[in-house]
Amino acid sequence: MEKEQLTGHINDLVKDSPDNSVASDVALRPDLAGMPFFDEPLAGFAAADDPYFAELKKPGVIGEHFLLPRDWLREAKTVVSVFFPHTKQVKTANRKNKEWPADEWLHARIEGQAFIAGFCRHITAFLKDQGFDCIAPALDPRFSAKSPLTADTTQQDYYTSNWSERHAAHVCGLGTFGLSRGLITARGVSGRFASFITTACFEPTPRLYSGAQDYCTRCGACARRCPAKAISLEAGKNHPPCSQFLDRTTEKYRPRYGCGKCQTGVPCESGIPKR
Ligand code: SF4
Ligand code: SF4
Fold first, then answer.
1. Nearest ligand to residue 244 Cα
2. Which of 134, 173, 252, 262 is placed for a possible disulfide with 198 were both Cys, Cβ 3.0 to 4.6 Å?
3. Spatial contact of 185 and 83, defined as CB atoms under 8 Å apart
4. Which helix (H) or strand (E) holds 167?
5. How many angstroms does the Cα of residue 65 sit away from the middle of ligand 2?
6. Distance, CA of 160 to CA of 267 (rounded, Å)
7. Using one digit for the tens of pLDDT, what is the confidence trace for 151-170?
């Protein structure tokens, strides 16, 4: 299969799917019915045996529990990562309130993620129809977001899983990490990621960076925006206070939750920041 056939199908799904927008029966406000969550996506590709994946198993990166592409799918040839940039409406709304998430952001976080899960199922079926095997690690029964290192939610080590969408995107040439631990892509940091591992063979995307944090200017804006004070120039992102803040948003907005202040109203929100 040609890469353009897959990327064209990915773009069409995001552009045309009614699920990439707020359904009127769940809209938090009448004016949000029909609001799209995501703009045109970015896709990146990496060889399944790219040695960079093995680097992620090292302590201090992700760790030994990280599963390599061929642990997920034995005959895998390619990892495909997709970035879904938030729409201007979602980002603009979340810039305003300094503490709590905007309604638009809550929809993008919950209903937007449900759209991405359906998107993953669709792409997996599409590639299988073309004669290739394919899995989406985040939907695989082996996926575990529970740390094997500690059961203590106050520990930084708790917040690790056996596959990472942002690390996969980094290996697939989509961008580099920010101080906030978001991945800064050519379309910014505000958005969500998905990935697939497939037996289809696609040419890798060149990584236009050499360091894992090349695009971050360390301007500190994300730290100033964080209502939980979970980010600092000295220590980067501290996961436990972020997680505790997200729990507070669950109490307030159940069944939704979210924050994303470190992704909006910052120089890297919608592109690679200028130095
Ligand atoms: S806001 Fe500034 S410091 Fe934070 S991730 Fe973006 S560029 Fe880096
Ligand atoms: S999601 Fe919110 S609480 Fe967590 S680091 Fe970003 S700004 Fe801070």
1. 2
2. 134
3. yes
4. helix 165-171
5. 25
6. 27
7. 777 777 777 899 999 999 99
Place of tokens 């976080």: 109
Distance CA 201, CA 204 (A): 9
Query: What mean pLDDT comes out for the span 61-81?
Result: 96
What's residue 93's pLDDT?
A: 98
The token pair at 238 is: 């501290």
Pocket test for ligand 1, best of 219, 233, 270 (most atoms within 8 A of CB): 219
Q: 100-114: per-residue pLDDT in tens?
A: 999 999 999 999 999
What is d(CA 226, CA 203) in angstroms, rounded to the nearest whole number?
38
Please tell me the pTM assigned to this model.
0.96
Q: How large a percentage of the chain has pLDDT more than 70?
A: 99
Asked whether the beta carbons of 137 and 67 are under 8 A apart, the reply is: yes
CA of 168 to the centre of ligand 1 (A): 20
